[in-house]
Amino acid sequence: MPERTHVPASRVSPVTGDLPALAARFAAACRDAGLPVGPDRAERLTRAVLAAEPATTRRLYHCALATLVTDPAQIPVLERVFAAVFGGLVDEAEHRGDPGSPPLDPAPDAAGPAASGWPGAAGNGIARTGGRTGDRPDRPAETPVRAAASAAERLASRDFDVLTPEELRVLAAAMRRFGIATPPRRSRRTRRAGYGRRIDLRTTLRGARRTAGDPVRLVRRTRRPRPRRLVVLCDISGSMEPYARALLQLLYCAGGAARAEIFTFATRLTRLTRALAHTTPAVALQRASTLAPDWSGGTRIGEALKRFLDDHGARGMARGAVVLIISDGWDTGDPDELGAQMARLSRLAHRVVWANPRTRHADYRPLVGGMAAALPYCDALVSAHRLDALGELLAALADGGPATRRVRPGG
What we know:
VWF_A; 9 strands; 3 domains; three-stranded antiparallel sheet; Uncharacterised_CoxE; VWA domain-containing protein; vWFA_dom_sf
């Protein structure tokens, strides 16, 4: 039986259910045992666990094997560290082609959850199930691993403004499960349909050749539906920075947002549509903060909205579109200017949705000059302040109701 490696309790702390911490601690234990595991491999392990969502330690081991090992000679070291950390619940003989070899049985004073500092209780993220019915079990016991699920569930109920950049990256996998949809509209292009109002004369006459010129069958066409354009105006002032990062990450990760036009504003308007395409969420946010010189600056919503309407919106970008404004309503400009520009926008757009994280409070009232001036021209007002509150935002964007329903001030 190969020599087992004992991982001291001082080097590995108990699991708290936080996936980045789990990957970092296990990678540190592998590095202490001699494996060349750096931050890049620890990040790959985290991404693999998020993608595979392993339910047992056996699957978790395969994630570690695929991401932390680059040479077959490193496999025994990984097996010993994994067995020491997770209590010896993986049969190393299974991976060496010898089904008859006895399973790894860590000594009570060396390996095991208690000795290594990794708990075996279910309340700490790893629950040990099963047991030995004899000296040699038919198959090794498996441990359900709820680290990925518990991390996302724990972070889903926390406001975006208290999340660290690492925790925000953990939520990227959960945000990919969302789908952003906008109401459909009829385009100028048509398609064949049995119930269409318009007759496709050319196709009908072509088919009449088979019936001696008599158009027995009328071919009809109808307009092809297309989703409405989504235009996002995101406030990146100091008070909105954490929410802006989270919602920009949502727009990058969620399905259906690929055709969205994205602008940021604080003291000026910046278009980020091309900069946020074809990259990772972390790089997209880095590009956004680099290209927007007014990031974490002041706020002049009315001037930014006027710039958008003059340069882009009135020329067709906002016509019939769903416009999402992400801002807390704090405006250092003239409220009358903001009200006038919101009136212009409401006449062009199909629907105007305002996401204000301050509305999460039950006693919130739109008494600030900017928010009070803009609210009469909004079709929906949502909070979108944390992950489990994004459903309200997505429902407001997908609502195909008439655009004449405006939010009443103070309501």
